[in-house]
Design a protein that fits this description.
Elements: E1 17-21, E2 24-28, E3 33-38, E4 45-46, E5 51-55, H1 58-93, H2 99-131, E6 134-136, E7 141-146, E8 153-154, E9 159-165, E10 169-173, H3 180-185
Antiparallel strand pairs: 1-10, 2-9, 3-5, 3-8, 4-7, 5-6, 7-9
């Protein structure tokens, strides 16, 4: 025989929630331009490095060609300035030149070297900008939103494609304020409608 007694009831509650990826990133181009092609659609799965969208590269190519031309020109000027400095040193050693002429030749050589270095950096920067015209996935995931269309002009850093990364997921559940304390100490299970 058992004695009957009251026990505190803990009713089960059911709430609707949403399963979301823990990390969703808005990806954007690192350079401004006009969108030439969008290569993905909503719901599409992508891999690391997969192209998502491409900018029109005409202006970027022109800038790269201009930088290359400046590098070629500065190479010639540098060679000429280095030869003039060498001649000025030799003439000064023989006493046929003044210190002022040597200093002038050295300053011209230094300036030519600086212009050459600047032209090299310009070539590197324009090469990078050309590679930035293709927006690539930085992780494996799925595309939940596309925020640009072909023909649209975008600014550098403007969100173009949203990428939800595969990996950890979170369940977002709205709980009534009166149950928050109980939810902190309770246990929960998740059941998917698709199951």
């Amino acid at each position: 025989m058992a004695t009957a007694h009251y026990e505190a009831e803990t009713p089960k509650r059911t709430f609707v929630g949403t399963i979301k990826p823990r990390i969703e990133s808005n990806l954007g181009f690192r350079v401004p331009g006009k969108v030439a092609k969008r290569l993905v659609e909503i719901g599409q799965t992508v891999d690391v490095g997969q192209p998502l969208a491409v900018l029109d590269k005409v202006d970027l190519r022109l800038q790269a060609e201009q930088a290359q031309a400046e590098l070629s020109a500065s190479t010639g000027v540098l060679a000429q300035a280095a030869a003039a400095e060498k001649r000025a040193k030799e003439l000064r050693a023989k006493g046929w030149n003044t210190d002022a002429q040597l200093d002038s030749a050295k300053a011209a050589a230094d300036e030519a070297q600086a212009r050459f270095d600047r032209a090299q950096r310009s070539v590197e920067l324009t090469s990078n900008a050309l590679s930035y015209a293709t927006l690539k996935a930085d992780a494996r995931g799925v595309i939940p939103a596309t925020l640009v269309e072909p023909g649209q002009v975008v600014a550098a850093g403007q969100a173009a494609i949203r990428l939800a990364r595969f990996g950890e997921k979170e369940a977002w559940v709205a709980i009534p304020e009166t149950l928050v304390e109980r939810a902190k100490t309770g246990t929960a299970t998740v059941t998917l409608w698709s199951d």
